[in-house]
Amino acid sequence: MILGQQQAKQRLQRMLQNERLAHAMLFLGPEACGKLAMALDFAQRVLCENKQANEQGEITACGNCRACIKTSKWIHPDVHFSFPTIGTNARSDQFLEHWRVMLNEHQYPTVHEWLQRIGAENKQGNINKEECLNIVRKLSLKTFEGSHKIMIIWMPEYLGKEGNRLLKLIEEPPANTLFILVAENQELILNTILSRCQIVQFHALQDEEIVEGLQQRGIAEATAFSAAQLASGNFNEAMKLAETSENDNATLFLDWMRKCYKGHGVELVKWVEQFAGVGRENQKFFLRYALHFMREYLLLFTTQDATRLRLCKAEKQTAQRFLNIIGFEQVERIVTLLNQLSYHVERNANPKVLFLDASLQMHYFLRKRG
Ligand SMILES: [Zn+2]
């Protein structure tokens, strides 16, 4: 199931219903918002041998025919993939195994994740000359089994100048050939390619759509909700947050703020000892959550309007209570402190020293309302 993106879905649906498929499309939108998932789904619908119309009149793939079975495993001989790789003269085909393993886990990759999976470490990926020649060669063949040949190029930004080798092919593709380019940054794609493609625009996902997607993956609602708040519409980020974050950051933050406000030494030391043990990744997410909360709190403080806040009910109540304690200048100090903490956690500072010091500063800020 593809999350959100109603406009893009409808546009592609119309193409299928009218049997007017654009021979070159560019799916354009922010990172991990579902462009690749949609391209895979579209390929399946095009190639299905037993297409069906659902109750809403939408063309769907049957899921059972020979073509569907192959497209859903990403092994259909008429669906070709091209994506950034590493190594001189490397071709995407050499990395197909990794590609399929990833798609099997999820279809919302980021380039960073992909390059790490294929062992790039600090190397830059690219789609090189060899790969472009391979694309040209593949598309010169007849279709093997399906009605169309479909070439999905993920991240054509990585083509650079080599994109020129594909111009003719994209402008005048062989019969029954569809190009789907899946991109994030229009400015990094040759204008000559852009002008030959129909652009299908995608958007960052809404929080609710992310929550829904995470719940489908078996993540509890509260965790899904807090991951969605921090992910800014990026489903890949949300999955990472939800899987890594073992803590209920909202509760943890409120507890910390209470203890800082009270300023009871023994309690604070105990809290810090415990928190020092949760590990760096969790501390980073906690701080990101805290900054998110303070941003929303500031919005409440300035507008007095709780309806627009990206916080759940319990968090809104906490924010409302803070109105009596935390003023504008204090917000400023707290945010600065949280940013400093993030900086030091990133650089492996001793968490016990760091968070005890921060707790004492926080106590001071909370008690000093102008
Ligand atoms: Zn089918």
Describe the structure.
This protein has three domains: 6-203, P-loop containing nucleotide triphosphate hydrolases (Rossmann fold, 3-Layer(aba) Sandwich); 210-244, no CATH class; 249-367. It starts with 5 loop residues before the first helix and ends with a helix. It is built from 17 helices and seven strands. The longest helix is centred in the C-terminal third of the chain and has 24 residues, at 280-303. The chain is elongated, with a radius of gyration of 25 Å. Helix content is 54%, strand content 8%. By secondary structure, the chain is α/β, with parallel strands linked by helices. Helix 2 runs antiparallel to helix 3 (66-72), helix 12 (249-262) crosses helix 17 (351-367) and helix 14 (280-303) crosses helix 15. It has a five-stranded parallel beta sheet, with helices on both faces. A two-stranded antiparallel ribbon has the order 2-3. The structure holds zinc ion (ZN). Residues 48-50, 61-62, 65, 67-68 line the site of zinc ion.
